[in-house]
Design brief:
Distance between the termini: 41 Å
Number of strands: 16
Strand content: 25-35%
Structural class: alpha/beta
CATH architecture of the largest domain: 3-Layer(aba) Sandwich
Largest sheet: 8 strands, mixed
Strand order of the largest sheet: 1-10-12-11-13-16-14-15
């Protein structure tokens, strides 16, 4: 009985240590998400040096975790250049004298140029845009004086048809409304006309006139960076597991609003740093590489540069896991490339079923939708994992740290570290 009591006490102590460790994981993860989504980083884009501040912060966290550079003669940060159209200044729109709210009522197409003024508005029946004659009539309207064109786009995407018109004949101002959520992106260049997207429910009656002001800066040859760290393997230092996540996001939407990017992808970046912290304290037999990519939102530029720069021999990568949008998980996770790498999926799935970590590991084929792609395209076995369920916010001002649940954050970390230990 005394032995049993000591055994029970030891078990409780061990459970307490494990629980404290797990609590520290979620505590650290939340702290990282909160920090990366703060105003200091300006949406981790290309205004106010947000992308540079974020990369410097990640490098410091890697150093605190005990990571080293990938090679002795390499820095933590790997530089490359991008171009981005940014909106660091004024961004306003009034319809019939009523001011609209950026991000909530309207957004601007990310390749729109700057400008200001007042314009009368001509509404276009979308049926007109289905024929070449109708498109020519739109061109004629666009050429007549200072007029903005307005279409309701609920029955289809007619803006593509309008911007398919020869550039010299396109409208200089296009207003589009629909009932879809406002989803913003970032562009590497400019098109000839300004294009606003507006929520249906803020339009009261016919649009007769607008007043707008847009300040944009097309930045070219911006020096940005990936952040790369290493925990050397204890038995097989020249064979690598790789964890990746992109830290960049969309930046500022005018001087007073930014896109925080909590789920996309402060969540994945936080998990990357959490894994770095774990392996810094618990080195694995294989070397573990951690890569925080820049330039993902512009078109996977950071991962493309890494693969093409040959900072490491790709054939030495045993497996790569890319983490992008991992802040939910009540419905499990989706695993891109799980239909391609079935043996790896079977191992991960058996671990999950044994420990009941996640509701499901949903199969999916290959997709060119995150930073795993260029590795996959160059023969590296890899998964891209994202969580299912959680808040619907994506590429908008509502993707904030306060509403990100991190539902299965700890269980996903457990699944990944178990996978590394047995695969």
């Amino acid at each position: 009985m005394k032995f049993f009591s000591h055994f029970l006490l030891l078990s409780l102590m061990l459970s307490s240590v494990i629980m404290q460790s797990n609590a520290q994981d979620i505590e650290y993860g939340r702290a990282m998400v909160d920090t990366l989504c703060s105003t200091y980083f300006s949406g981790r884009g290309y205004t106010n040096n947000g992308h540079i501040k974020a990369a410097d912060f990640i490098e410091e966290e890697f150093k605190k975790a005990g990571l080293t550079t990938l090679e002795k003669n390499k820095p933590f940060q790997q530089k490359f250049t991008v171009s981005a159209n940014t909106y660091p200044g004024k961004l306003s729109l009034k319809i019939n004298g009523k001011p609209l709210q950026v991000g909530k009522d309207f957004i601007i197409d990310p390749s729109s140029p700057g400008g200001k003024g007042k314009m009368k508005v001509v509404s276009i029946d979308t049926a007109t845009l289905r024929t070449e004659a109708g498109l020519r009539s739109v061109s004629a309207l666009a050429k007549k004086g200072k007029k903005a064109l307005y279409i309701n786009n609920n029955s289809g995407n007619y803006t593509q048809a309008i911007f398919g018109i020869a550039e010299s004949e396109r409208p200089k101002m296009l207003l589009e409304s629909n009932n879809a959520k406002l989803t913003w992106h970032i562009s590497t260049g400019l098109k000839s006309g300004t294009h606003f997207k507006i929520k249906d429910d803020v339009i009261e009656g016919p649009i007769k006139k607008i007043e707008y002001e847009v300040e944009n800066v097309l930045q070219q040859n911006i020096e940005t960076q990936n952040v790369v760290g290493l925990v050397r393997g204890t038995e097989y230092p020249d064979s690598f597991f790789v964890f990746t996540a992109h830290y960049d996001h969309l930046g500022m939407l005018g001087a007073n609003h930014y896109i925080p990017g909590a789920n996309d992808n402060a969540s994945g970046t936080a998990m990357l740093m959490n894994l770095a912290k774990y392996y810094g304290e618990n080195p694995a037999p294989y070397s573990i590489v951690f890569i925080a990519f820049g330039g993902e939102e512009l078109g996977l530029f950071g991962s493309k540069h890494f693969v093409e720069s040959w900072w490491m021999e790709l054939e030495k990568i045993k497996f790569l896991v890319n983490l992008d949008i991992v802040g939910g998980g009540e419905d499990g996770v989706q695993i891109v490339n799980s239909r391609q790498f079935t043996a790896a999926y079977s191992v991960m799935d058996s671990i999950n079923k044994k420990h009941n970590y996640l509701k499901q590991l949903k199969l999916r084929g290959t997709a060119q939708n995150s930073d795993h792609w260029y590795f996959y395209d160059n023969g590296v076995p890899c998964f891209f994992i994202y969580t299912l369920g959680g808040p619907p916010y994506y590429h908008d001002i509502f993707d904030v740290a306060e509403t990100l649940p991190l539902t299965e954050y700890e269980d996903l970390i457990r699944l990944l570290t178990d996978f590394v230990s047995v695969y």
